[in-house]
Amino acid sequence: MTVITSFERLSEEEKHQRFMERIEAGEKIEADDWMPEEYRLTLIKLISMHGISEIMGALPEKEWVPKAPSLRRKLGIMAKVQDEMGHGQLLLRVAEDLMAPLGKTREEIMQDLFKGDLKFHNVFHMPAPTWGDAGLIGWLVDGAAIITQTNMLDASYGPYARALKRICAEEVFHAQHGESIILALAEGTEEQKEMIQGALNRWWDALLMFFGPDNASTTGTSKQDITIKYRIRTKTNEQLRQDFFTKYVPRILSLGLKLPDETMHYDETQGKWVYRQPDWSQFKEIIRNNGPKSKERLRLRELSYRNNAWVREALSCSSAV
Amino acid sequence: MKITKPEELKQYPEYQEALVELLFQLADDDFILAYRGSEWLGLAPHIEEDVAFSSISQDTMGHAAMYYQLLEEIGMGRADDLAHGREASERRNAILLEEVNGPGHYLQEPRYDWAFTVVRNYFYAQAKKVRIDSLKNCSYEPLAQVAIKINMELYYHLMHWKTWFVQLVNAQGEARERMIQAIEKVMDDFGGVLSLGNKGSKMVEFGLIDSEEVLTERWIQAMKPVFEQANLTMPNAFQMKRGNGRNGEHTSDLESAIATLSEVYRMDPLAAW
C-alpha cells in the first residue's frame, strides 16, 4: 500500500525514470502497470498491426487451401492457416488490453483496417498465383517472420513476449510445412521446378521489404529507434535482413534455384551481404493499400464483416438476456 | 460374421461391394463438407469462430482421409486419386453437402450464408453421430476402429454446432427468421443425408450398419428436445428434392467444387506433390 502511494506521488518524469530503470534491468511490464504514453501507443500500433497481419495473411494462403493437391497437403495447409488465425486472435487480445484504458475495442481495430489507418504487412498485399507460392509463403515468409519475431522474444512488454513464444514455436512448424512443399516441387517435374523459381522471383522484393527500410531516410518514417529504446526489440531492420540472407541464401541455392538478384554476394571484408535494394517507393505504395492485391483482400474481409453483422448482433442480444 | 483384415474380403465379393459403397458414402460426405468449410476460411462471423470452424473442417478432412485409406487398403486405388480424381457421377455424397455456401465465390464477393452453414453442419453432425455410433459395431473391424477414433472428435463438433443453433434460433428478429428459412432449405435435401442408397439393404444384411429407418428414428429422437425447447416445429418430411447423391445423382455445384479442389492435382496426377 505504501509502495503504491509513494509511486503515485512521483512526478511524470520520475515515473518515466523508474519505468526505464525497470526495463533496463530486464523486468517485464504487465498490462496494468504504469507505462509512458509513447510506449503504450507504440505497442498498440505494433501489436495490432502484427495481429491484423496474421489475419490478412491468411487470405493469400486461403486461396490454396481448397486446391491443395493431396489429402496430406490439404490437412497441412488447413492446420497452418488455422494457426495464423489463432495468432491473430492471440495478438488482438494483447492489443485489446492495451487499448482498454483509452476506451477502444476490437471494433476500432477492424474499422481502422477498413479505413486504411491500420496497415497490414507488405507481403500480404502480393498475389499468390500458383501452388508454388503457397509453398514459398510457408517456407520464406514464415521463415522471415521467425527471424523478426525471435528478435522480440525478450520484449519488455510481458504479454507480447509470452504470445510471441507460442507463435514462434508454431511458426517453426509452418516453415517446415512450407519447406516440405518446396522440396517436393524441387525434386519433381520441370513444370514443378519452374513453379518454385517463378514464386521466388515474384516474392524476392517483397521478402527484402519484409524487414522494413534500413533507416528513416529510405521511406520517411521508421519506428525501429523507439522500439529499440524501449527494449521491445534488439536488432535493427538491416541486421535482421542480413540474418535472413545468412540462413536462407545457401538453402535457396542448394535447391538449384537462382537468386533473382545477380549482383548479390557475401562481402568478406564488410562481413555482410551486398544486394540490390528493392524499390522502396513501391513499398510505400503497398502499405498505403495500393499493392496488387490490397483492395481485393480488404474487400473480402470487409464484405464478410458486413455480411455477418446480423450474427454478431444476434450474439450480443442473446448474451444480454 | 466379423472381418478383421482387408485380405479376407476376397472370399465375399457381395459383402465387399456393399462395404465399398458405404465407405464411399462416408468418405465423400466428409470430404465435400470439409471442402465447403475450407471455403469459409477467413470469412466466419468472428475471428474466434474462424479458428474453431477451421479446426472442425480439418478434423472432417482427416476423417475423409481415413475412409479413403480404408478403400485404398481394399484395393480401390490410391486415397489421393479417390479424393481428387473421381467424376461427380462417381461420387456418393449427399447432395445437401455439395451445395455452395451461398452466393459468390470464395475469392470474389462471397456472400455466404451463416444460418445455412450452422443448420447444415448441425443436422449433418447429428446424423454423422448416429451413423458413427452404429459403425462402432460394424462387422468390418477396420471400419469399427475408425469409427471409435472419429467419435472422439465428433463430440466437440456436435457441441459446437448445437451451441450456434440454439443461440441463433433463440435470438429474436432477423436471426430467428434466417434460421427458420435455413431449416426449410436444409430439409428439402436432408433425406439424402439419411439415405443409404440402392445398396442399403445389403449393408444392413451384412451387419455393416443399422438400417436407414433405425438411424432416422435415432436422429429424430436426438433432435426433438432441441426443437421443442426452441419452440420450433420438428420437420416430419426428409426430402430429396434434387435426387439421391448416394446413387450418383448430383448438381453442378459438385462439378465446380471438384474442378477447384483438384485443380493442382490434375496438372499432373502422377507427380509427387
UniProtKB/TrEMBL annotation, chain A:
InterPro entries: Aromatic_CoA_ox/epox, Ferritin-like, Ferritin-like_SF, PaaA, PaaA_PaaC. Gene3D superfamilies: 1.20.1260.10. This is 1,2-phenylacetyl-CoA epoxidase subunit A. It comes from Anoxybacteroides rupiense.
